[in-house]
Design goal:
The protein is an alpha+beta fold. It is built from four helices and six strands, in the order H-E-E-H-E-H-E-H-E-E. The protein folds into two domains: about 50 residues, Ubiquitin-like (UB roll); about 80 residues, Translation initiation factor 3 (IF-3), C-terminal domain (Translation Initiation Factor IF3, 2-Layer Sandwich). Helix content is about 40%, strand content about 30%. Helix 3 links the parallel strand 3 and strand 4.
Amino acid sequence: MSASAALELAAREDLDLVKIAPQAKPPVCKIMDYGKYKFEQAKREKEARKNQHTIDTKEIRLSLNIDTHDFNTKVNNAVKFIKHGDKVKVSIRFRGREMGHSEFGYDLMQRFAEACQEFATVAKPAKLEGRNMLMFLAPKSNK
């Protein structure tokens, strides 16, 4: 149908003529209430945003000479974050002469990863960057 006939039909029904596929030959149009369409589209997008979960990165800081109970508390916090669906950044800051014993840091990170292995996988293994040692844990996929 011609564009003028379609416009006339849309005006008669008090609706809008909307191009669905303008790049097609000939262009494809639809007669609809454009305001209602935009409102419903915005409503669907808002609902989709409400239902999506963004993955945050939570940080757990350890010290090289951490005690057993403090270590377990940090592990429990990390597990809570992972169960919520967040990634966890585990860091150790070396002070003074601790820099000479970075192998203790690797051992501590390994213990931490083993304590969380039921719920998380190691996304990035422990790596020494300056005075900090970092490791990233990600939630296990439910496949």
